[in-house]
Specification:
single chain; 20 helices; 74% helix; 0% strand
C-alpha cells in the first residue's frame, strides 16, 4: 500500500515538471493549426502541407543537393591544388584593417564560403591556427565565419535563376555586413570582458610554434583530381541531406503563412496559404521598402526564413519568381542577407558552445542581426547605384 502511494507521488511529481512547458506548447500548436485550418479547411490544410513538402523535396531539395555536390567537388579541388591558400594570401592584407583579425582568418572566410558555417569550428580547434588570435578575436570568429557560410552555394543558385551581376552585388553587401557584425561582436566582448583584449586565445607552447611542413604529394595529378572531386562531392551530399529538414519544415510553414489561395480557392494543392506574413509586413512595408527596396510584402519571407536556414530560404525563390515578385534588387538583397545570416539562429549557439563561450551567444546573435540588416541595406543601395550608371 505504501509502495503504491509512493509510486503515485513520484508519477504526479514527474508529471508536474512538464506542465509549465508542455501545456503552453500544446496550446500554441493547437491554436496555430486551428487558425490555419479554420481559413483553409482541415482537409485542405493537411493536403497542402503534404503536397508542398513533397514538391519541395523533389524540385528544390534535390536541385540544391546537386549544387552542393558540384560546389563541394570544386571546393575540395581548390583545397587540393592550393587555390584556397592562394586566396588566403590575397585576402590576408584586408583582415587587420577591415575585421581587426589576424591575416590567417582569411582561411576561415574561404573555407566557410566554400562549405558552411561550422567549417570555422574545425579551424578553431587547430592550435596552430588559434595561436595568432587574442581571445576577443577568437570568439568573434563565430560571427566572421557565419557571414560567408554557404556563400558559393547561394551565388551559384542565384546565377541558376538567370541573374549574374546581382549576386556579386549581394556578395559585396555580405562583406560589409560581416565587417559590422565582427567588429560589433568584438566591441561587445571587450566591454563585457576587458581582459580578453590582451589575453591570447591559447597559451603559446613551444610545440605549437613550429613551422608547418608542406606535405609532398606523391600521387599522380589524375588521382588527386579524381579523389578531390569524389570526396568533395560526397561532402556535398552530406550538406544536401542536412538541409532537407530545414527546407521541408521551415519552408512549408513559411509558405503557408506567405501564399494565398489558388484561383479555384482552397483545393489542398501545394503552395496554398493564408497570406499572414504579407498582411503583417504590409502594415510596416515602408520600412522594408526603404531598407531593402522590396516591391512586394511577400518578399519579407526570405529574410525571416534565412534566420533559421539559408537552404530553406533559397527554396522560396523559385516560387517567388513564378509569382512575378522577384526583381534584380530582390536577388541582390537575398544574396547579401542569405549569405550573411545563413541560418545563424540555428548555428550560433552550437558554435559558441563548442568554442567554450556559450554565455556570449545573445551578444553574438544581436551583432549578427544588425550585420545582416546592414548587408541587405548595402546591397539595395549598391543595386540602385549600379542601375543608375
Amino acid at each position: 500500500m505504501e509502495q503504491t502511494e509512493t509510486t503515485v507521488q513520484k508519477q504526479s511529481f514527474s508529471l508536474s515538471r512538464y506542465i509549465p512547458t508542455g501545456v503552453p506548447c500544446l496550446v500554441i500548436v493547437i491554436a496555430l493549426f486551428w487558425y490555419v485550418g479554420k481559413i483553409m479547411g482541415l482537409a485542405n490544410m493537411l493536403n497542402t502541407i503534404m503536397h508542398t513538402a513533397h514538391d519541395l523535396l523533389l524540385n528544390t531539395v534535390f536541385y540544391l543537393m546537386g549544387i552542393c555536390v558540384l560546389t563541394g567537388a570544386v571546393g575540395r579541388l581548390f583545397v587540393e591544388f592550393g587555390v584556397v591558400k592562394l586566396l588566403e594570401n590575397i585576402l590576408r592584407p584586408l583582415m587587420r584593417p577591415l575585421f581587426n583579425l589576424p591575416g590567417v582568418a582569411a582561411l576561415g572566410a574561404t573555407m566557410t564560403f566554400l562549405s558552411d558555417n561550422p567549417a570555422i569550428i574545425s579551424l578553431s580547434q587547430d592550435r596552430r591556427f588559434c595561436r595568432y588570435f587574442k581571445k576577443f578575436q577568437y570568439i568573434s570568429l563565430t560571427n566572421f565565419g557565419t557571414a560567408f557560410g554557404m556563400g558559393l552555394l547561394v551565388i551559384v543558385f542565384m546565377i541558376g535563376q538567370g541573374y549574374f551581376v546581382e549576386p556579386v552585388i549581394g556578395l559585396f553587401g555580405a562583406f560589409c555586413g560581416c565587417i559590422v557584425s565582427t567588429r560589433l561582436m568584438q566591441r561587445f566582448i571587450i566591454k563585457a570582458y576587458p581582459n580578453y583584449a590582451i589575453e591570447d586565445a591559447i597559451e603559446k607552447e613551444a610545440d605549437t610554434i613550429e613551422e608547418e611542413v608542406e606535405h609532398v604529394e606523391t600521387k599522380s595529378v589524375f588521382i588527386r583530381v579524381l579523389n578531390s572531386l569524389l570526396d568533395g562531392g560526397r561532402t556535398g551530399v552530406d550538406v544536401g541531406i542536412a538541409i532537407i529538414p530545414g527546407v521541408l519544415i521551415i519552408s512549408t510553414f513559411v509558405m503557408i503563412l506567405t501564399f494565398g489561395a489558388s484561383a479555384e480557392g482552397y483545393t489542398g494543392a501545394a503552395y496554398e496559404g493564408i497570406e499572414l506574413l504579407p498582411w503583417l509586413a504590409g502594415k510596416i512595408n515602408f520600412i522594408f521598402e526603404w531598407l531593402f527596396g522590396f516591391s512586394d510584402p511577400h518578399l519579407v519571407a526570405f529574410p525571416i526564413t534565412a534566420l533559421g536556414a539559408v537552404g530553406a530560404a533559397l527554396g522560396l525563390v523559385p516560387n517567388f519568381a513564378s509569382q512575378g515578385w522577384i526583381d534584380g534588387n530582390a536577388i541582390a538583397v537575398f544574396t547579401a542577407i542569405g549569405m550573411c545570416w545563413s541560418g545563424y539562429l540555428s548555428t550560433h549557439t552550437a558554435m559558441l558552445d563548442s568554442l567554450g563561450y556559450r554565455e556570449l551567444t545573445p551578444k553574438a546573435i544581436l551583432a549578427h542581426t544588425i550585420g545582416g540588416i546592414v548587408a541587405a541595406f548595402v546591397a539595395h543601395m549598391m543595386y540602385v547605384l549600379v542601375t543608375m550608371l
